[in-house]
Design a protein that fits this description.
The structure is a single chain. With about 260 residues, the chain is mainly α. The protein has one domain. The protein contains 8 helices and 2 strands; from the N terminus they run αααββααααα. A two-stranded antiparallel ribbon has the order 1-2. α3 runs parallel beside α6. The mean pLDDT is about 80.
Length: about 260
């Protein structure tokens, strides 16, 4: 007859629950995998499967029961670590959506907005379109697999029982400030083209005051905006690939203990 003690049961549960907490927090806050369109049972099932795979590779666990104050503190630490990792990657898509909002406003499509179920708010159609392109490119580049690989690596660089160092939190804050730079870089070709177009329309209006600027300006800016968007798509994918790799590097630096 197989028998085991309560201490052994607590050890087995802790070996599964502590990694599962970090994995759940990361998946819930990460892009694509954490979207609201993904059913909750899929997220939980994927997290449990990853926890079962990763748990045997973690090694020695802190001697803390799940229901004890020390165990609750460890679970809170895992939630903070997982959210920090997922938030780091989600900022890339925030930069893409910011670029789409800037582009939509300059094209005159600021009024054309749809409900975005991911952010539970209305966003311009150009921002949603760029967000979908970024999500598809993220999956095509196996970004979700690299993200899960970085998650598994985090249990080696930041074992359970350790907390993100102050340098890691500073790295997340610095990476968050970079979304404005990345958003401007993505939308810069379109902004430059539309700025040149608006200057040309202004000169044309001064040269021929009888022209109706509102009648000819909107179709011209709209056509040039879509043309520049189409021409910049190959460069957009290249920039997105660089941002994803920088985001993965930042994610690993966040969960790396200083030597």
């Amino acid at each position: 007859m197989i028998s085991f003690t309560s201490a052994q049961l607590d050890t087995w549960l802790a070996a599964l629950i502590f990694p599962l907490t970090r994995i759940l927090a990361m998946i819930a806050s990460s892009p694509v995998l954490g979207n609201k369109q993904v059913p909750a049972r899929v997220k939980i099932g994927l997290s449990v499967l990853l926890a079962i795979i990763i748990a045997p590779t973690i090694g020695e666990m802190p001697p803390a029961a799940i229901g004890s104050p020390q165990g609750m503190l460890l679970m809170i630490q895992q939630v903070i670590i997982g959210v920090a990792m997922g938030f780091t990657m989600r900022l890339i898509f925030t930069a893409v959506e910011m670029a789409g909002e800037l582009a939509g406003l300059q094209m005159g499509l600021g009024f054309a907005s749809f409900y975005d179920p991911v952010n539970a708010a209305h966003s311009p159609v150009v921002a949603q379109w760029l967000g979908m392109i970024a999500a598809l490119a993220f999956l095509a580049m196996d970004g979700h697999l690299y993200m899960l690989s970085a998650l598994a690596e985090s249990f080696r660089t930041l074992p359970i029982g350790s907390m993100i160092p102050a340098k890691g939190f500073y790295g997340v804050a610095s990476w968050g400030g970079s979304i404005f730079v990345f958003g401007l870089q993505i939308s810069l070709p379109l902004l430059a083209a539309l700025l040149t177009t608006n200057i040309a329309l202004g000169i044309l209006t001064r040269a021929a005051p009888q022209l109706n600027l509102f009648a000819i300006g909107f179709p011209i800016t709209l056509a040039i905006g879509f043309l520049v968007l189409a021409l910049s798509m190959p460069h957009f994918i290249t920039l997105l690939d660089r941002l994803i790799h920088e985001g993965l590097g930042t994610m690993l630096n966040v969960v790396k203990l200083p030597h």
